[in-house]
Amino acid sequence: MKKPLSFALIGRSGCGKGTQAELLMKHFGNLFYVSTGNLLRELAKLDTLAGKSAKEIMHKGDLIPDFMIIGLWMKELNLNLKVDQGVLFDGAFRRLIEAQEADEYFNFLDRKGTLFPILIDISREEAYDRLTKRRICKKCGKIFPWVGEFKKLEKCDKCGGELQHRADDNPDAINNRLAYFDKEVLEVLEYYKKDNRLITVNGEQTVEKVFEDILKAVKAK
Ligand SMILES: [Zn+2]
Question: Which of the residues 95, 111, 134, 135 is marked catalytic?
Answer without folding.
Answer: 134
